[in-house]
Amino acid sequence: MFSLKDVKLAVIGLGYVGLPLAVEFGKKRSVIGFDINQSRIEALQSGHDSTLEVSGEEMREAHHLLYSACLDDLRACNVYIVTVPTPIDDYKQPDLTPLIKASETIGKVLKRGDIVIYESTVYPGATEDDCVPVLEKISGLAFNSDFYAGYSPERINPGDKEHRVTTIKKVTSGSTPEVAEVVDALYREIIIAGTHKASSIKVAEAAKVIENTQRDLNIALINELALIFNKMGIDTEAVLDAAGTKWNFLPFRPGLVGGHCIGVDPYYLTHKAQSIGYHPEIILAGRRLNDSMAAYVASQLVKTMVKRRIHVDGARVLIMGLTFKENCPDLRNTKVVDIVKELQEYNIHVDIHDPWVNVEEAHHEYGITPIHEGVGGTYDGVIIAVAHRQFKEMGEAGIRALGKPEHVLYDLKYLLSADESDLRL
Length: 425
Hints:
α7 crosses α9 (265-275). The protein has helices at residues 18-26, 38-45, 56-61, 97-107, 126-139, 177-188, 201-232, 236-243, 265-275, 282-291, 293-307, 336-344, 359-366, 389-400, and strands at residues 9-12, 31-34, 65-68, 79-82, 115-118, 148-151, 170-172, 195-197, 316-320, 349-353, 379-384, 403-411, 423-424. The protein is elongated and about 75 Å long. It contains 14 helices and 13 strands. It has a six-stranded parallel beta sheet, sandwiched between helices. Strands 10-9-11-12-13 form a five-stranded parallel beta sheet, sandwiched between helices. Strands 7-8 form a two-stranded parallel ribbon. The chain is of the alpha/beta class. The model has no long low-confidence stretch (mean pLDDT 95). 39% of the residues lie in helices and 13% in strands.
C-alpha cells in the first residue's frame, strides 16, 4: 500500500460536491478535476463556478488543480474520488446511472494498487455490490487484491457559507483496514473539523442515508402539525415558537422538501429495505406527506381566492422563487415545480421570478422560463416559495405591490409576520 506522499488524486464530477473538494485538495497537492461536461470544464478554467459554491479567489488559490474532460489525464492517478449525482427516477427508484458510468470511466484507467473512493449518496451495499463489479469487469482487476475501495459520504450544504467542506466532520471508510487508514489520512489533510473512521463501507453508506432520512421525517411531522393547526385556525409559527422555548425541542419548520438530499435519500434506503423483504412504514409515510405539500399549497391558495371572489379560471399567480432553498442557484429536485403543475390544473397562468436561477437551466430541466421580475399590480395571487434575501429586502409593501388591489399573498417561508400575509403554512 502506497503512502500519502505517493497519492496522485483525481476528483470525478465537478458539481456542488466535487468542485469544493477538488479546490481544497488542490491547495495542498496535485489534483485532476475531471468532468464529462466540456462547457463546465471551460467555465472552471476561466475561473467561473456557476454553482456559486466556490469563489474565483478560492479557485485561484488551488494552484495544483487541473481541470480536464480528457480520460488520458486520469491515467497517471492512483486515487479517484467519485462525486457524481445519485438521483431518483420518475418512479422514485434509485438511478445509479451516473455512478455506474463514472465507475466505467475509472475502470478504463484503473491500475494495480489504485483506490476508488465514492462520496455519492447510495444505499448500504451499493459501493461493493454495484460499483466494484463494474470496476472489476472494465479493468480486469480483482477487488481487494489488485485494487481497493473506500466510501466517504459528502455533507455539502449548497449555499451555506458557514458549513463548508473543510469545517464539516467527515465520515471515512475503506475496504480493508489499511485502505481505511489511507482514506482517513487523505481527508485529514483538508478537513479541519476532523474525521470519523467508520468500521466498514456499509456502515458509512448507512450513516449518510439516515442523516437526511431523519431530517425528512422531522419535517414531515412539522408539516402534518401545520395541516392540523391550519384546520384549527392556529398559527403554526406561533406554536413552534412557544414549543421552542424548551431546550430539547428541535427547531424544524414546515415547507416544501426538495433538493438533492432530503427529498431523495430516503428512497435509496427504502429501496434497499424492500429488496431484502422489509416494507418501511414510517419512512415512506413521511415521504408521501412531504411530497403532497405542493398540492396542499395550491388548494389552499385556490380556496382562499374563491372565498375572496377572485375568479380562478384564467387567474394570474406569481411564484417568488424556484430553487430548492434560499440564496443559492440549485434547482435540483425543487418542489416549486409541483406547485406550478397543480395551479395549471386550475387553468391558472403562473409566472416565476427567481433572481438566483439560470434561465436556460430552468427551461432545460423543467420547461419553465422564469421572468426577470414580477409585473406590479397584475397578479391575483403571490406565493413566497423561497426566502431569498432579495425578497426579504422587498418587505410586505414591495411584495403586495405585485398583486392586484384584491389578491392573496401566501407566505410559505415565514418571510413576513403573521399579520402581513393572507396565508401561511
